[in-house]
Amino acid sequence: MSYDFNDAQPQMMPQGEVIPDGTFAKIRMTIRPGGTNGSAPMDAGLLKASADSDAKMLDCEFTVVEGRFVRRKFWQNFTVSGGKLDDKGQSKGWNISKASFRAMVDSALGLNPKDMSEAAKAKRVIQGLKQLDGIVFVARIMVEPPSDPKFRARNKLANVVLPGEPQFDAVMRGEEVEPDPVDAKPQKSASGTVAQNAPAWAADAAPAPSSSAGAQQQGGASWTQQPPAAAPPQASPQPAANGPAWLNG
Question: Where is this region: Disordered (predicted)?
C-alpha cells in the first residue's frame, strides 16, 4: 500500500497563533449548547448561564470557511438576557447581540441593511436562536490583547461585513482583502477583570453581578424571559418551511 500526499491540504497554522487583526473572512457560526433553556421551544438547553451574573448567553464557535485561514476557529459569547438594563428595562447585552444577529442574517442572505420591504423583513424573522446555528457570513476579525501577560491574545468578531460595504463582494468572490486592524485595548470590567459575558467591543454592556436578577428580568422585553430552571428540556421542532435560507438550502 502506498500513500499519495499530493492532494493533501495545506498544513494548519499553530493553534496558539491568532488570525491577524482586522482580517476579513467568510466564517460559519456554530452554537455550543450550554444546558440552559431559551424562550423558544427549539432553544431548550441551548443557552449558557453566566457563572457570576444573571446573564444567559449563546456560546458560539466561529470557523473560517475559505481563504488563507481556512479551518481556523475562535470563540465568543453573546448575551441573550440579563445583565445591565437600559432606561427601558431591556438587557443592554441582548440589544447588542440582537444587532449582531441581524447583521449576520443580512450578510448571509445578501440583504441590503436598508431594505425594509416586507420580503426582506420576513427573512429577518427566525423561530428560535437555534436557527442561527450554521449561518455563514462575511466578518472582520479582531485581536483582543490579554490584560494579564500570563494569557494569550485571542480572536473575536469585530463586526459583520454587510452588502454594500467594499470588502463584502471581494470576500464573496474568494479574493484576499487587505486587513483593517482594530488595534483593540484590553477590555476590563468595573471590578478590573476582563469582561467575559459580552462582545469585546461592548464592555459597557457586559452583564454585572446582581442580587435582584428576577426583578431585572421582569423589566426586560418579553423575549428575554426564560423558562424556569427546573423545566425539563423540550424536543426541538423542525425548522419552519419559511426558515432561514442557510437551513433550507
Answer: 176-249
